[in-house]
């Protein structure tokens, strides 16, 4: 951590926000870290492990349970199998783990909580009792509550199923897969399946008195992939840097971006949507600004991971209390950090391609006017995010491909005349011409020979 990168007034303010949260919310301890440009730039732990004034102070190397943030690790491990060609996201779960009542759901639906699988187990509260095998869980039996693909329905059981898929694909436990393929390459040595070394005990804080009750901790067995991992602020900060794009050789940037695409919306009728699920990751949409990450809770613990997509700034946070005001309150750390220490934009440099000049300027789709501009090595038709405005990347001589919006993935072709000059643009059969309905540009349907009148 290098808090010297921040203004002293910012550090003091952030320390104060976290201290007030710990005190006002009556949390035994809290720990948080902020990440920018692949490293932790601020981190602090406040309180003691047992909540008493004489107790051992929490620090940035104290382990806490991350709860459902575990799901992001499971999801990345599954996507590595896809990238290796060992499965397809459209595969049915049954194709890889036969014998359950979840077989009709696809792997993509399980990752995005769109498989309709029941949320919790049929037995005792799994987060507070020892877990059994996958055969025990599947035979209980676990079922689909809704038609697969119909709606968002958060499912811890669904991630128990994905953990079993990992185990069968690799011939080792889901955690051994995560440790070998993700934790070790990222240097996350303090992330474990059970507490190791200095670890915070989980507490329930009485709602009406300043007293504590210990919460149990067990191996959740087949349900462990839904929320069992323990980690530290320092380790989870490395995962936040991963989510911000510092993926190393663990995952391709394209696959990570695919995981962040909203696949299913968490819909509350009558309210605008603010959160969706991608492939294992939550996606927040607040006033048009996107963030990705995941929340976590287990008896005795609350945790958070949040990364602003545009800036790459991230927040990790923990407390060892079952309940209490925490999530929105601790998220203020990221908001305050970004407001007080805005990330400066990269300087502009003249690095464009003069060869694209023949494509920029005004074009017409029928009577509609579209401005084409070049930004770096990309061609923009219209304003991305407005109407059908999209960015395009060059994929060959006179061939481009859409990068976003309505034309995502679609081909744009530059059509030239006999003299080699640009005649028009062909975008999914739409003809863009330099003048409205240019009769010389082979406009589909032809142009009335009487012309404009």
TrEMBL record:
It holds the Pfam family Beta-lactamase. Residues 353-434 form the DUF7586 domain. SUPFAM superfamilies: beta-lactamase/transpeptidase-like. Residues 15-325 form the Beta-lactamase-related domain. It comes from the Bacteria. This is Beta-lactamase family protein.
């Amino acid at each position: 951590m290098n808090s010297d990168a921040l203004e002293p007034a910012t550090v003091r303010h952030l320390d104060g926000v976290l201290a007030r949260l710990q005190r006002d919310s009556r949390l035994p301890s809290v720990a948080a870290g902020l990440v920018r440009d692949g490293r932790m730039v601020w981190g602090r732990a406040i309180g003691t492990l047992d909540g008493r004034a004489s107790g051992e102070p929490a620090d940035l190397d104290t382990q806490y349970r991350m709860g459902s943030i575990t799901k992001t690790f499971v999801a990345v491990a599954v996507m590595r199998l896809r990238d290796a060609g060992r499965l397809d996201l459209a595969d049915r779960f049954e194709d890889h783990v036969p014998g359950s009542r979840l077989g009709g759901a696809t792997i993509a639906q399980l990752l995005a909580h769109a498989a309709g699988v029941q949320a919790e187990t049929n037995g005792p509260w799994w987060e507070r009792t020892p877990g059994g095998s996958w055969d025990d869980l599947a035979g209980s039996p676990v079922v689909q509550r809704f038609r697969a693909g119909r709606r968002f329905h958060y499912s811890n059981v669904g991630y128990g199923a994905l953990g079993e898929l990992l185990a069968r694909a690799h011939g080792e436990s889901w955690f051994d897969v995560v440790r070998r393929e993700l934790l070790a390459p990222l240097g996350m040595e303090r992330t474990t399946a059970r507490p190791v070394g200095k670890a915070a005990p989980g507490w329930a804080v009485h709602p009406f008195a300043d007293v504590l009750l210990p919460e149990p901790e067990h191996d959740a067995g087949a349900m462990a992939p839904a929320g069992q991992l323990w980690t530290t602020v320092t380790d989870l900060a490395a995962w936040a840097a991963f989510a911000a794009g510092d993926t190393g050789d663990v995952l391709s940037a394209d696959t990570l971006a695919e995981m962040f695409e909203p696949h299913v919306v968490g819909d509350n009728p009558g309210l605008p949507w603010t959160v969706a699920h991608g492939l294992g990751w939550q996606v927040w949409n607040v006033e048009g600004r996107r963030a990705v990450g995941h929340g976590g809770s287990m008896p005795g613990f609350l945790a958070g991971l949040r990364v602003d997509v545009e800036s790459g700034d991230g927040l990790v946070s923990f407390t060892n209390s079952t309940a209490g005001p925490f999530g929105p309150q601790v998220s203020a750390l990221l908001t305050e950090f970004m407001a007080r220490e805005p990330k400066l934009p990269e300087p502009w440099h003249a690095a464009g391609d003069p060869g694209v000049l023949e494509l920029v300027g005004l074009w017409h789709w029928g009577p509609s006017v579209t401005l084409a501009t070049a930004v770096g090595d990309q061609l923009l038709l219209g304003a991305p995010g407005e109407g059908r405005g999209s960015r395009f990347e060059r994929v060959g001589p006179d061939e481009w491909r859409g990068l976003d919006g309505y034309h995502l993935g679609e081909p744009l072709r530059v059509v030239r005349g006999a003299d080699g000059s640009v005649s028009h643009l062909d975008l999914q059969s739409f003809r863009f011409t330099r003048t409205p309905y240019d009769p010389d540009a082979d406009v589909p349907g032809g142009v009335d020979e009487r012309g404009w009148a």
